[in-house]
Design brief:
Shape: elongated
Mean pLDDT: 95
Strand content: 15-25%
Distance between the termini: 21 Å
CATH topology of the largest domain: Rossmann fold
GO molecular function: shikimate 3-dehydrogenase (NADP+) activity
InterPro entries: Aminoacid_DH-like_N_sf, NAD(P)-bd_dom_sf, Shikimate_DH-bd_N, Shikimate_DH_fam
CATH architecture of the largest domain: 3-Layer(aba) Sandwich
Number of domains: 2
Protein name: Shikimate dehydrogenase
Keywords: Amino-acid biosynthesis, Aromatic amino acid biosynthesis, Oxidoreductase
Enzyme class: oxidoreductase
Oligomer: single chain
Radius of gyration: 19 Å
Low-confidence stretches: none
Amino acid sequence: MKKFGLIGYPLGHSFSKKYYLEKFDKEHIEGINYDLYAIEDIQEFQNLYSNDAGFYGFNVTIPHKLTVMQFINELSAEAQEINAVNCIKIQREGDNIYLKGFNTDAFGFEESLKPLLTPAHKQALVLGNGGAAKAIIYTLKKLNIPYLIISRTKENGDMTYGELKKVDLKDYQVIINCSPVGTFPHVEDAPDINYEQLSADHLLYDLIYNPVETRFLQKGKEKGALIKNGYDMLILQAEKNWEIWNNEE
């Protein structure tokens, strides 16, 4: 039995487990399992794959996307630049175990964003500067879209939300919520921006997918903005993980 799984802590509802088990069933993929491994101390991770040769790969979620890198033998180019790993491929040769780390969040975001971009989308605002923002910033650089990082404190970004109130949002046509604001059950919350300045020229992207339409997206939609949640990003990165795990290289 080939084994894959998700490590993180705490692990509640998991998109990944549901997605992969449904995929295996639908595509008649046999001899493979995907499960959740709630690991509070990252040092426990090594025991999982060292003591069980059935493991071929892992997904990584908070709080371990950075700390897991101490066990990685090789990083892909994007994982190295982002400095975070969310996908691990395990290769074995005799007693030797080789781990390669990837960041498929960047792929998922880029491929879900590109079809929505128009020539009007010249500059971006990134709301939040936590772990989720790293892959977003990497992608904006790759697509040559200038950006500002908005955070609660000046030390963590280019500008605070208070300072943003003095900025005309017509100059920033792409606004990406990388913060947890608006996540279930706090569905009435929304990032503190001037929604009155939004128009049909704007694209609002929320990494949150539960609820499907956050208050942030609803407020943008009311102003005619194009909106997108994080669900397709998750699907795309999940399929990219599967491609990586099944690549013989």
